[in-house]
Amino acid sequence: MIQARHPARPALTRRGLAAAGLGMAVLVAASAARAEDFVPPSNCTAYLAVQSRSCTVSHHYTCADSPGDLWRMDFDEAGAFYLGLINDEAQWVESRGLPDGSLSRTIFPARDESSVTTLLETGYDDWDFDEIRDGEQIRVTGFDRLTGETAVIDGEELLRTEFETQYYDAAGLLISTTTGREYVSATHRRFFSGIRTWRSGDQEDTTDSSPAEFLYPGDPGFASTQPRHNCGPMLSALPLAEDHA
User: Predicted confidence band at 1 (pLDDT cuts at 50, 70, 90)?
Assistant: First the structure.
């Protein structure tokens, strides 16, 4: 599943209420996130930072007030721009644009939630659910499939996947399609972006947001909010991490 595939529940569950509160706390933190280091909200713990090839860095953290939920905040050269929440099955729950706080949410219960457990056990998983985005209800369908290939990026063992996602409006008309290949981690039970192509009508855009570095607490640069790969007019001087199938 795309990291921000549902980048984007009107009736919020207890978890949703906790998530909403944490989301607002993070917006406050994000306003100060132009500083050197990422600091998660109170009662939350940062456990992983991922520097990508697309001049972004993602900080992953968990919070005691919402056990099982996995949070991610993304930074580019201008600062924080995305806050995402998934559950312990890697089902997208909500996302916020930063710093404006624009919000998209999955509507639960879903017709068919995504399941990283199913993907890891069977090699295939599909999903079908609705989201509220900018006040509009959108249907999201698609699948993830393990390719049988593996990759090692910066020492991190990952499984390669291929995916396809379709977005439909309330009338059932196709809005856009995203296809590509990415990575899933059995250790972290979440997806990491790869090469994807977005299509809508006669428009098309392909991006490579593959991970380049995996950083853990204690690693140099773990808390840095400064992306360092393929930024600015010239490529980063730092070498890309080794990636072999």
Answer: low
User: What's the 3-state SS for 37-84?
Assistant: ECCCCCCEEEEEEEEECCCCEEEEEEECCCCCCEEEEEEECCEEEEEE
Place of tokens 């953290």: 61
Say if CB 77 and CB 231 are below 8 A apart.
Answer: yes
Tokens 């296809």 found at: 179
pLDDT tens-digit readout, 170-206? 999 999 999 999 999 999 999 999 999 999 999 999 9
Q: What is the pLDDT of residue 237?
A: 40
| pTM of the predicted model as reported, rounded to 2 decimal places | 0.83
pLDDT of residue 134: 84
Beta-bridge partner residues of 177: 166, 199
| Burial of 229 (C-beta count, 10 Å sphere; 0-12/13-18/19+) | buried
- Round to whole Å and give the CA distance between 144 and 215: 26
Burial letters 35-50, b for 16+ CB under 10 A, else e: eeebebbeebebebbb
Q: CA-based Rg of the chain, rounded to a whole angstrom?
A: 17
For residue 24, pLDDT over 60 is answered with no
Q: Which of 126, 128, 1 lies closest to 70 in space, CA to CA?
A: 1
Q: Which helix (H) or strand (E) holds 36?
A: none
